[in-house]
Amino acid sequence: xxxxxxxxxxxxxxxxxSTDVVIGGIHFDSRKVGxxxxxxxxxxxxxxxxxxxxxxVGQGAIAVVCETFPDEIAPGVTxxxxxxxxxxxxxxxxxxxxxxxxxxxxxxxxxxxxxxxVASLLYQLFRKAGFKSGLxxxxxxxxxxxxxxxxxxxxxxxxxxxxxxxxxxxxxxxCFMEVSSHGIHQKRTDALQFAGGVFTNLSHDHLDYHDTFxxxxxxxxxxxxHLPVSAxxxxxxxxxxxxxxxxxTKARKLTYALKTYADYKAQxxxxxxxxxxxxxxxxxxxxxxxxxxxxxNLLAIFGTAVELGLEKLEVLxxxxxxxxxxxxxxxxxxxxxVTAIVDYAHTPDALENVLNTIxxxxxxxxxxxxxxxxxxxxxxxxxxxxxxxxxxxxDKAILTSDNPRTEDPDDIIAEMEKGVEAQNQRKTxxxxxxxxxxxxxxQLAASGDIILIAGKGHETYQEINxxxxxxxxxxxxxxxxxxxxx
Length: 486
Known about the structure:
The chain is an alpha/beta fold. Helix content is about 30%, strand content about 25%. It has 15 helices and 24 strands. It has an eleven-stranded mixed sheet, sandwiched between helices. A six-stranded mixed sheet has the order 17-18-22-19-20-21, sandwiched between helices.
């Protein structure tokens, strides 16, 4: 491919050298650069790619895309100056892979909670409807029925476009993609053509990355601001930020809600551990998903599917067949009738939603034991809030490690404990080792009791000091409950 062809729509400020050269690959990691490759110098949160330009050139880079020219200009190398290399990488990646999003009906789902569930179940629904479909999510990437491992909620532009090109090659019609605030802020989705966008909700999260909640909200809003007039924007207007998301969008504005008037409206008729009976736009449907938060997710899925052209009654039929997503309110019931629930709830709002769901369903004759931790090297302000919610809404709360990363887990737990009010301290204990915490919960649980293990959900590892150790909450609790039976 010619260099000038991948620079289409890139905001170029200056060029040194010729753009009429044949290139090999594109990289923003200097360690991967080889002969005739293009190196894009990204200013990251940890390192600045501009410091590695000379290294990339030494390894054979034929072109460098940067925000400032280096002091040393190597002969035979083309240097392209742009205002923002993050945005440039998005367009370069899309051009290199043939702008695959233009050949898909691509829907982006953004919000604090529910992104994975909505994206994954849309993928599942459209596959059941007979369409070849793609998924880019926190849990996994699917090219129709071919699974790839996911590393980020929203991958880098080269990865996104590479998988979307595979989808186009495989004849995929629809792609459903989680769009994180990090991904939006770092321009990873700038060059993608969306057929629709969905807003789930907004609550306390990622304030380690975004300076304020207002900034976090505005980054989410910018996704809808950039949707084309041909797209739809579907927003949860029960959330106070739902209307904000639609304010400046050129897309067709649509709403969904349980509590207020909306284009797509639902009412919960029954809520049990076995599922939900919903009335959606005057039609009843039974679903195996559980809880009010899933009623919102199902409503978003229904609205999206209808806006993409599926027949309403067919969508309702398919909703009744959907199965829950890995690590999202997954539960087992042991032989001695202890219910263990594993959920990804890692924000205050998500934890409160899950606990509200459990407390709405339970009889109150059983005890609810909640195990919760908070991730290291992440938003510290939510730690006491998470502990407050767990301790005030449960009969017993166990504070433990999540992914401590480079932090001391005991320090994280100490910060969490500050949120436990005096009246809840006697029913709250701290156990640093996560497996031991789950074991104690299993030992405390009698027949009929409920154990909630929150925070990690689908993750099958625990990250401690940069090392990932095998750890699967569901596998651990299954094993421990089985051992106690003997």
